[in-house]
Design goal:
The chain is mostly beta strands. The protein contains one helix and four strands.
């Protein structure tokens, strides 16, 4: 799938995003969810951020798939999920 970048406000909390596009005259809708995950809530060691991110993605709701991992801060990491098509 091709990717088009769309700027959204800086995520300070959960955001639900709906995008509607026309591709060759055919209308399509996509649903995204930006989640903020705080490092201090991770069940793994604070130094093992990779394991934390992997666990967050693997245990996230099965109706959503990973779309993007944002830039981490010292406090949190924003992760964007795309709603799976049924």
């Amino acid at each position: 799938m091709a990717i088009i970048g769309i700027e959204i406000p800086r995520p300070d909390e959960e955001q639900n995003i709906e995008v509607e596009v026309k591709i060759n005259g055919i209308k399509k809708q996509y649903h995204y969810r930006v989640e903020i995950f705080y490092w201090d809530e991770c069940p793994f060691s604070p130094q093992d951020r990779v394991a934390c991110i992997k666990n967050l993605i693997e245990t996230y709701h099965p109706g959503w798939e990973l779309a993007h991992i944002g830039l981490p801060t010292e406090e949190y990491i924003p992760i964007t999920f795309r709603k799976r098509r049924t």
